[in-house]
Amino acid sequence: MDRLALILVIIGALNWGLIGLFQFDLVATLFGGRDALLSRIVYTIVGVAGAYCISLLFREREKQAQR
Asked: Which of 1, 2, 49, 55 is most buried (most C-beta within 10 Å)?
């Protein structure tokens, strides 16, 4: 689950990088525009993955503290 969430966050970050640098939204291009249902689902899944990845920060610190 951690890797899947991290992959989705990376995809989101790359998409934001494309938007910032080239004004090109890859997700919208692939899934029918920003307002398309499929695009909104992808954006939502990436957002949920980002929220889940917050827990990775705290778990990593806990593992290092136990060493």
From this structure: 49
